[in-house]
Structure formats: structure tokens, C-alpha cells
Amino acid sequence: MPVVSPVSERSTVVALLLLTFATGLADSLSILILGHVFVANMTGNVIFLGFWLAPRTVVDLTAVAVALPTFVCTTIVSGRLSRFFGSRTRPWITTVLATEITLLVVLAVLAGTGVLHYNDKTKLVMIGILAVTFGLQHSSARQFGIQELSTTVLTSTIVSLGMESRLAGGTGDREKLRLSVVFTMCAGALVGATMSRFVVAPVFVVTAAVVATSLLIFRFGPRPVS
């Protein structure tokens, strides 16, 4: 059963769009810098797993072997966390996003100071931390019950965009929202890919700042109208 957002519908959409932007940032880094692995969109990792199972493959599955089970385990913890808070939605989402911000800042410090590197085995620590971060985010965001705003998966959003469009005989009621979701994740990926040509650790800081803005909306945004 979907949870009731502590803020208005408009504020909830804005907050979740920010988290979608953060997803684009993170996955652009994981693919372009850390190797063939997604830290938020697990569909891609399942496909990489299929590549690895094919005969005579040369795909290195080490990163996926870290990201996928870590992500799944995090969703289990996230489920426990949401049941612990129950109907106390505001402190629940605040805890989730504060944890996410903390992990991203820690990652930025470890990467920026050279404790973790992008081209050796220590990058697996980065991948693991990012998988925890976005496993927590995705499993929490989906509980608001807005299908288009899971913050990680776009396939169903794009399918709905076509099937329910006026061209397909639909009403096109949620067309602007669906287009906004697609554009937002694409924009996050664009910003992440562009920044990563010059710097990497600061991208984690930007991601944390985006998540922090979402947290502020959930924490202090206007309550929903009864």
C-alpha cells in the first residue's frame, strides 16, 4: 500500500524529480568511470549478467557481482525501515535521504582524497556504497505510489507515454509528467557525463546537494490539502 506523502502532490513530484536527476548523475559515473555496471538501474546489470553467462564471453562481472546483491540487500533493510516508522512518513523519508546524503559525502571524501581509486579494486567499494545509496532511494521512492516516479526505471514510463498519448487514442493526461521524468534523468546523465570529463569526486557532492534539496522539500514543504 502506498505511503501518504508528508507534503503536497506538487512538492512530492518536484522532490522525486530531483532524486531522478540524482540517479542520472550516479549511473553516468558508474558506467563511464567505474566500468560496465549500473548502481541504480538494476535492469542493466541483469543484462550484463546474461552477457557473462554466454559462451566465450569476455565481460568482467566483478562490479555487477558487487552492485546487484548489495542493492537487493539494501531494499530488504529499507523495507524493514519503512515498517519500523509506519505512518510517520516525514521522519522516515528524512532518515532515508539523510543516510543517502551521508553516504555520498563520505564517498566524495574518500574518492577526492585518493583513499579510493577509479581504476583498481578499491572502486568496488565505491560501487557498493552507491548501490546501497540508490537501493535505499529507489525502494523508498516507489512507496509513494507514483508509477512514473520510481526515480530509476523509465521503461514503463516511456511505454505509458506512447500507449496513453492522444496519438494512440488516449487522453494524454500525464504526458507532461512522463516527459519531465525522461528529460530529468537524461539531464542528470548529461551533467554527470560532462562533469566526469574533468572531475569525479565533485559529482558525488553535486548528487548529495540534489538529494539534500529533495530532503528539504519533504521536511519543510507544504502539507497536502485535506
Structure description:
It is built from eight helices and no strands. The chain has about 230 residues and is mostly helical. Helix 2 runs antiparallel to helix 3 (about 60-85) and helix 4 packs antiparallel against helix 8. The two termini are about 20 Å apart. The model has no long low-confidence stretch (mean pLDDT about 90).
Write the layout of secondary structure elements.
Blueprint: H1 9-32, H2 42-53, H3 62-85, H4 89-112, H5 123-141, H6 155-163, H7 175-195, H8 201-220
Helix pairs in contact: 1-5, 1-7, 1-8, 2-3, 3-4, 3-5, 4-5, 4-8, 6-7
Structure summary:
The chain is mainly alpha-helical and about 230 residues long.
Pick out the low-confidence regions.
none
Task: Report the sheet with the most strands, covering strand number, pairing sense and barrel closure.
Answer: none
The 3D shape can be described as globular
C-alpha termini separation: 19 Å
Task: Give the averaged pLDDT, no decimals.
Answer: 88
The number of E-state strands comes to 0
What letter string, H or E per element, gives the SSE order?
Answer: HHHHHHHH
What fraction of the residues are assigned to beta strands by DSSP? Answer: under 5%
Structural class: mainly alpha
Radius of gyration: 18 Å
Summed up, the helix count is: 8
Helix content: 55-70%
